[in-house]
Amino acid sequence: MTITANILAFIFAYFKYFLYLCSGFENYKIVDCKMVNVFDTPLSVAQAVANRVKQRRLALRLTQVELAQKAGMPLATYRLFETKGKIAFSGLLQIAFALDCMNDFNNLFSSQSWATLDDMLAQTKPAKRVRHD
After folding, report:
1. Which residues are bridge partners to 36 per DSSP?
2. Are 10 and 2 in contact (CB under 8 A)?
């Protein structure tokens, strides 16, 4: 790329960053002129999910006891999730069902993302399974 193209890409990336900040996506940063989610570890993602669940619970005016009962799990299990982000996947599904958020899981791993346009164009057809004998 030319210097002008690099500058334009940089300006565009920061403009996108500004839009994300204004729309509540403050968990992103610019790295090499690309938007990158700053959640670095599974634990930080789990804690962020637990926080979003708590916010949804509060918005619905549910207590921890009520949501745990609605999700069909012990209160201690729910509290551990809400405070530390630790829960079995099946328990997380139960909470999602209780909060009417199952569609979020239906889309999990369903879409592909590419770092660059070249990456997208390079992948013309889905990968095929290779048998290893």
Report:
1. 29
2. no
| Residue 91: both structure tokens together | 């328990």
Kindly tell me if the per-residue pLDDT of 95 is higher than 80: yes
pTM: 0.57
Average pLDDT value for the chain:
78
45: Cβ contacts below 8 Å, ≥ 6 apart: 39
Pair 57, 78: CB distance under 8 Å:
no
Residue ranges of domains in the chain = 1-37, 42-106
Confidence of residue 105 (pLDDT cuts 50, 70, 90): confident
Range 42-106: architecture per CATH: Orthogonal Bundle (1.10)
Neighbours of 42 (CB within 10 A): 9
**How far apart are alpha carbons 52 and 39 in whole angstroms?**
14
